[in-house]
Amino acid sequence: MSRFDDSRSEPVCPAETYLARPAERLVVEGYRNSLSGCATGEVSAWRGAWSLYLEDLGETDGRIAFDGLVGIIGTLGRCARCPLRFFNSDIRHLCRDEGLLLALIAAAQHGDEQTGQIAAQALSCPLRCGELTISATDYALRLRMVGRTLLPVSAAMTASLAERGGPPSPLHRSTHRTLH
Length: 180
Prior knowledge:
By secondary structure, the protein is mostly helical. It has one domain. Helix content is about 65%, strand content about 0%. Strands 1-2 form a two-stranded antiparallel ribbon. Helix 5 crosses helix 6. It starts with 13 loop residues before the first helix and ends in a 6-residue tail after the last strand.
């Protein structure tokens, strides 16, 4: 009989452990579902995002946090570098834009202006960084208000994410439609 049973067939990705945290899960899955709704025009994707917040936070706190998500998605639609990338909700990895969004929200929650600036500049066009930062701060404060605080993301990690580019992987989805 084996003294150590590791029946997993694949190693756990660090992102999978990170996404198991309630705050990070709300941000990433909310982003993925809402962008999927924007990309496809399917209302069911937005309902999926709302259901996530409702199940985790209840109706009152869920609405407070979800309104912040809606606000930042609207802002990204007006000022993001095109096109925004995202994975399907069942993917247990993070793409560049998802990592940058997490860094931006975490920076606002932890008062890290340097990280927030790096993330905002990587996600938005230069003239709209301030607008994105304001929207991210609103969302971050709403999440904190309902007891969901993200882990801090370092400026070095955020800069590393910002430098990534190139063609999307086959797992990526993109909005292809923006409001600007």
